[in-house]
């Protein structure tokens, strides 16, 4: 949602209104659920998605009309063959169209109130560079930490929410607290750095903790943590090797598998892949 807020602010600076389309309820089988958002700009461009296909096309057309009329409205789209969309999903979505005149705080607050799932990514190597844009597409907000300043050049991570540089030991002390609904991905350039990060993260109530590496590396890291005094229950929270077992080994393929694992965790489906 950060990108939508930024684009909307830019449109307002230019004196142009926009329309925010939000799914406020979904019944039955639908492409997207409640909370999905799409911003329709004065020049016809759209950002975000409320499901694609016919319903999104119809919503974008209606948003363009409301832009000209300068007003808001709710509208329900039945996803059946006989409905306005011609879709056969069998459900229905209610879309709230909010006309956003320049400076309309109500619309901006609606965007800012949507909390994007937060990922703390430790390590800025090849896999991390491939992973960040995929996670951004899936509506994760990614903070990247590395101890090498040259690795954290903004042009390498244009989709990251934040870039932080410093030693891995004590990194969490310089970051916002890791909350119970946050995700942590560890893929530093060395075993020792991985252990240093994991020793900090295991003390936080993160929803997901994953660490890159082979099965032999994963076993060694777990042994080091157990020797450091962590319990078996604590160490078992770590997903390592990280990612769903799709079989790929290139940075891009590993990034896809990691992103898929985080999405599965978000939707409570991780156990289905174990």
Q: Architecture of the largest domain, CATH level 2? A: 3-Layer(aba) Sandwich
Tally of separate helices = 8
The sequence of SSEs as H and E is: HEEEHEEHEHEEEHEHHEH
Number of strands: 11
Strand order within the widest beta sheet: 8-7-6-9-10-11
Q: Estimate what percentage of residues fall within beta strands.
A: 15-25%
CATH class of the largest domain: Alpha Beta
Calculate the mean pLDDT score and round it.
89
Low-confidence stretches: none
Shape: elongated
Major sheet summary line = 6 strands, parallel
Please give the domain count: 2
Estimated helix fraction: 25-40%
Q: How much is the radius of gyration in Å?
A: 21 Å
CATH fold-level topology of the largest domain: Rossmann fold
The CATH H-level homologous superfamily of the largest domain: NAD(P)-binding Rossmann-like Domain
What separation lies between the terminal Cα atoms?
A: 32 Å
Instruction: Find the structural class using helix and strand composition.
Output: alpha/beta
What features would you describe in this structure?
- With 274 residues, the chain is α/β, with parallel strands linked by helices.
- It has two domains: 2-112, no CATH class; 117-273, Rossmann fold (3-Layer(aba) Sandwich), CATH 3.40.50.720.
- It has eight helices and eleven strands.
- It has helices at residues 2-13, 53-69, 105-112, 126-137, 191-201, 215-227, 232-235, 251-266; strands at 18-27, 37-41, 46-48, 73-78, 92-100, 117-122, 140-146, 162-165, 183-186, 208-211, 238-239.
- The strands form two sheets. The chain has a six-stranded parallel β-sheet with strand order 8-7-6-9-10-11, sandwiched between helices. A five-stranded antiparallel β-sheet has the order 3-2-1-5-4.
- Helix 4 (126-137) packs across helix 8 (251-266) and helix 5 (191-201) crosses helix 6 (215-227).
- The radius of gyration is 21 Å and the shape is elongated.
- It starts with a helix and ends in an 8-residue tail after the last helix.
- The model has no long low-confidence stretch (mean pLDDT 89).
């Amino acid at each position: 949602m950060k990108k939508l807020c930024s684009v909307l602010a830019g449109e307002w600076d230019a004196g142009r209104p926009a329309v925010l389309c939000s799914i406020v309820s979904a019944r039955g089988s639908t492409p997207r659920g409640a909370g999905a958002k799409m911003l329709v700009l004065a020049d016809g461009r759209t950002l975000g998605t409320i499901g694609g296909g016919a319903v999104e096309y119809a919503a974008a057309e209606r948003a363009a009309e409301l832009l000209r009329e300068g007003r808001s409205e709710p509208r329900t789209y039945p996803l059946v063959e006989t409905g306005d969309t011609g879709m056969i999903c069998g459900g229905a979505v209610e879309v709230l169209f909010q006309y956003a005149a320049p400076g309309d705080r109500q619309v901006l607050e609606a965007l800012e109130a949507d909390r994007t799932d937060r990922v703390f990514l430790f390590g800025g190597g090849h896999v991390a560079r491939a992973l960040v844009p995929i996670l951004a597409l899936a509506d994760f907000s990614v903070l990247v930490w590395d101890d090498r300043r040259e690795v954290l050049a903004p042009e390498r991570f244009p989709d990251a929410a934040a870039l932080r540089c410093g030693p891995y030991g004590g990194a969490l002390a310089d970051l916002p607290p890791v909350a119970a609904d946050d995700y942590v991905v560890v893929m530093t350039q060395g075993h020792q750095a991985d252990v240093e990060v994991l020793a900090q993260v295991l003390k936080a109530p993160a929803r997901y903790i994953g660490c890159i590496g082979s099965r032999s590396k994963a076993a060694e890291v777990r042994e080091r943590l157990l020797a450091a005094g962590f319990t078996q229950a604590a160490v078992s929270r770590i997903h390592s090797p990280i990612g769903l077992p799709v079989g790929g080994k290139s940075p891009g393929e590993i990034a896809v598998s990691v992103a898929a694992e985080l999405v599965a965790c978000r939707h409570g489906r991780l156990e289905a892949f174990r």
